[in-house]
């Protein structure tokens, strides 16, 4: 959902985000910063997908619609790009963006795990960090497969292991100075649910997909978006990520101390003109329906 969960699950406080409610609202409030942070991975996935004019593409967990708009441009007027997301506030923003851009991209607010779309089968499925949140992933992916033509290709970006994502590990290191957080639950719905590619392949196979292939994406994430200052990156984390909510629950003194630590952390990784740059790793996954 909403393309991109941004935190490791380790408890109910960090996983199982309410994308139709609180997390969707948080994403919308910092939409440009969220999208700026994950844009390079989305661009890499779009390049890998290589959409052609005339193709019909379903964009799973489209969030604010940036990837759907890019897909619509690639497939042209003879094709179709439909963004699907469970967050109504994000779908409304995506529709407004499409209207402002004069784009033919369309958007539907629905739960992809159970949605029945009144659409012809799609040639392709795309998802930038929108596929890792299903409570029951096998039936959810089986439902998505039913929306695709036989042999249709899917392209997914999912986060690799948290230890390979310094942007998350460093932030959580600060949080753990002040708050006790239980160990992560492997394979629980959340941003890092598919860190284990064997687990993901088992899900896709059980849902009827074949021929999974993977490429690793490794680079740096601009925390808070390209060009964000250490203070802006700190504000982004505390306002938009679940880590900020957890710290706030422990009182103003904890929040103030953690804010200072985060700003110091981000100052060490700040590069003028680029922003707060920390390493990240994702899997770019393809398979066939």
Average residue pLDDT: 91
Q: Beta-sheet strand percentage?
A: 15-25%
Largest sheet geometry: 8 strands, mixed
Instruction: Give the second-level CATH assignment, the architecture of the domain at 22-161 and 183-222 and 282-288.
Output: 3-Layer(aba) Sandwich
List descriptors.
289 residues; alpha/beta; Rossmann fold; eight-stranded mixed sheet; 10 helices; 41% helix; disordered N terminus
Note the topology.
Blueprint: H1 22-29, H2 31-49, E1 56-60, H3 66-75, E2 80-85, H4 88-101, E3 106-109, E4 122-128, H5 137-145, E5 148-159, H6 166-178, H7 197-206, E6 210-223, H8 230-240, H9 242-249, H10 252-268, E7 270-271, E8 275-288
Parallel strand pairs: 1-2, 1-4, 2-3, 4-5
Antiparallel strand pairs: 5-8, 6-8, 7-8
Helix pairs in contact: 1-4, 6-10, 8-9, 8-10, 9-10
Structure commentary:
The structure is a single chain. With 289 residues, this protein is an alpha/beta fold. It has a domain at 22-161 and 183-222 and 282-288: Rossmann fold (3-Layer(aba) Sandwich). Helix content is 41%, strand content 22%. The protein contains ten helices and eight strands. It has helices at residues 22-29, 31-49, 66-75, 88-101, 137-145, 166-178, 197-206, 230-240, 242-249, 252-268; strands at 56-60, 80-85, 106-109, 122-128, 148-159, 210-223, 270-271, 275-288. Strands 1, 2, 3, 4, 5, 6, 7 and 8 form an eight-stranded mixed β-sheet that branches. Helix 4 links the parallel strand 2 (80-85) and strand 3. Helix 1 packs parallel to helix 4 (88-101), helix 8 packs across helix 9 and helix 9 packs antiparallel against helix 10 (252-268). It is globular. Mean pLDDT is 91; it is low at 1-16.
């Amino acid at each position: 959902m909403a393309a991109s969960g941004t935190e490791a699950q380790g408890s109910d406080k960090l996983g199982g985000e309410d994308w139709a409610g609180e997390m969707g609202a948080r994403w919308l409030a910092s939409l440009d910063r969220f999208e700026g942070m994950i844009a390079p991975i989305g661009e890499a996935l779009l390049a890998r997908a290589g959409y052609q004019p005339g193709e019909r593409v379903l964009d799973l967990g489209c969030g604010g619609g940036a990837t759907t708009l890019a897909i619509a441009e690639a497939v042209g007027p003879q094709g179709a790009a439909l963004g699907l997301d469970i967050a109504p506030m994000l779908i409304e923003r995506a529709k407004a963006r499409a209207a402002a851009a004069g784009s033919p991209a369309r958007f539907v607010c629905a739960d992809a795990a159970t949605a029945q779309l009144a659409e012809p089968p799609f040639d392709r499925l795309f998802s930038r960090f929108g596929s890792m949140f299903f409570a029951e992933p096998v039936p959810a992916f089986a439902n998505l497969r039913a929306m695709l033509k036989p042999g249709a290709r899917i392209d997914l970006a999912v986060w690799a292991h948290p230890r390979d994502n310094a942007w998350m590990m460093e932030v959580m290191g600060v949080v753990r100075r002040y708050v006790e957080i239980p160990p992560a639950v492997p394979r629980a719905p959340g941003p890092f649910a598919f860190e284990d590619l064997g687990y993901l392949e088992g899900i896709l196979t059980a849902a009827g997909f074949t021929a999974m292939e993977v490429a690793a994406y490794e680079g740096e994430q601009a925390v808070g978006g390209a060009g964000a200052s250490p203070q802006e990156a700190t504000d982004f984390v505390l306002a938009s990520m679940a880590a900020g909510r957890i710290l706030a629950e422990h009182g103003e003194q904890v929040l103030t101390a953690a804010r200072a630590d985060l700003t110091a952390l981000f100052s060490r990784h700040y590069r003028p003109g680029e922003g707060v740059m920390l390493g990240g790793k994702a899997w770019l996954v393809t398979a066939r329906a």
